[in-house]
Amino acid sequence: MTSPILSWSIVLQLAIVGFALLLGLLALISIFSKSAPLQVNQADDTPPGSLGWPLVGKTLEYLKPHKSNSTGQFLQEHCSRYGRVFKSHLFGNPTIVSCDLELNTFILQNEGKLFASSYPKSVQSILGKLSMLLVSGEQHRKIRSTAVSHIGTSKSRPDFLRYIDKLSSSLMESWKERKRVPFFKEAKEFTLHVMLKNLLDMEPGDPIAPRILQDFLTFMEGFVSLPLYIPGSPYAKAVKARTRISSTLRVIINERKTRKEGYSRGDFLDEFLQKGHLDDEEEVSIVLDLLLAGYETTSGLIALVVYFLAQAPKALQQLKDEHRKLRGNKADGELLDFEDYKQMEFTMTVINEALRCGNLVKFVHRRALKDVKFREYVIPAGWKVLPVISAPHLDPVLHQHPSVFNPWRWEDEATSKKFAPFGGGLRLCPGSDLAKLETAFFLHHFVLTYSWKIKEDECPVSHPYLEFKRGLLLEIEPL
Ligand code: HEM
């Protein structure tokens, strides 16, 4: 017979489990059920599809990880059932999902008129309300133009290019004694150091740099996790990491403002502090935006190129030839400059093809500002709209054998018209050229210094943020 103490403890355990489940359910409800009106147009001229269970909808299915050179099971099934444009219930809202190139372009080009940026609440509380992705109108224009003008000049500034070049070659040097390299992690460190130099004139030896990197890694883990604010959860840790990064940046900015030498370092901080047009909160937010967007995505691009090249010996050979020829025209140890970059034509096709196949950004978040008529459909005002910018990249009607890495497809000029890895319209990524330049300089050193191999089952995964199954562990050998 069960003793009363034992049965009491079982009842207690069941009660605890029940309570935990209830808490979990309440948390899920709070994440997914926002107060968006679920009004379907009377005549229902919305695109085909199903709104699913209104509470959680199909968000978990939509976000299920898949190989990033495929669109994933959810989109494959929905597109074959309903077509490239369909309705669903995602992120707590009735939603139109678009895998259609023409509609995606239309949505992005009509930012502020028919559609507006609309990231989930969890993204807002982690990026901060002044993040460029979230602000709109005049404030967006002011913050964005500060970033665009800085990135525009720095990408061709000789001292900055020399810095990227030297950082790449010292990274190659640091791998000389190693047989294996956890490549994605090393690429993240590399691109964070490029951005720290570019924005804050901070070099790897600076004692603050490793702290910022650690906080960013924690930040990213939570940024992409389930947004449950439970003490100790990745999301809660990320919110804390963001607060720490913000206060570190605040200290750096204040210290710069009181410097006797004035604004003489020529980095981004000097540039906008000199203009004095941003308020305290905007100052921290813009640096945080650029650091985050600048390092996370570019390291993904570098890793994708290295991943695809490992399986494309012909493309790798042609790339090596291009870089050997470039090196041959330079004196021993002479650093790369903007003119060299302009000559890296095949490199650009390799980078574009890695962006097309690898898909760093799967989709962006928008909402319809008014009822919008597109073809025979109506997108109702207030509905969420998700242009899946990766879908046209993998559409066999637009790109022949879309899952094959083929840099030569870029010889056809039409290819670039079916490609939007950097979004479009008013929110077109301001860092696209910088990301390509960093990748090209890194590749120059990498392909001329090492050969590399990757385990067979490695692959880039869309979570929807980019991850590698095994962290892209490379076996390297000096050439
Ligand atoms: C391969 C690398 C990159 C990819 C694929 C990428 C992709 C994108 C995409 C798709 C957007 C549009 C988001 C939207 O419409 O909601 C975007 C916006 C943005 N990106 Fe990038 N990006 C990359 C590199 C960079 C770099 C290097 C920087 C900074 C130095 C940067 C800074 C930004 C910023 C600040 C925005 C917000 C723009 C706005 O809302 O006006 N990105 N990026």
From TrEMBL:
It is found in: Membrane. Heme binds at C429. It is a single-pass membrane protein. Keywords: Heme, Iron, Membrane, Metal-binding, Monooxygenase, Oxidoreductase, Transmembrane, Transmembrane helix. GO terms for cellular component: membrane. One of its GO terms (molecular function) is heme binding. Its cofactor is heme. The chain crosses the membrane at residues 6-32. It catalyses: campesterol + reduced [NADPH--hemoprotein reductase] + O2 = (22S)-22-hydroxycampesterol + oxidized [NADPH--hemoprotein reductase] + H2O + H(+). Belongs to the cytochrome P450 family. PROSITE patterns: CYTOCHROME_P450. Pathway: Steroid biosynthesis; Plant hormone biosynthesis; brassinosteroid biosynthesis; Hormone biosynthesis. It comes from Coffea arabica (Arabian coffee). PANTHER family: CYTOCHROME P450 26, CYTOCHROME P450, FAMILY 724, SUBFAMILY A, POLYPEPTIDE 1. One of its GO terms (biological process) is brassinosteroid homeostasis. This is Cytochrome P450 724B1.
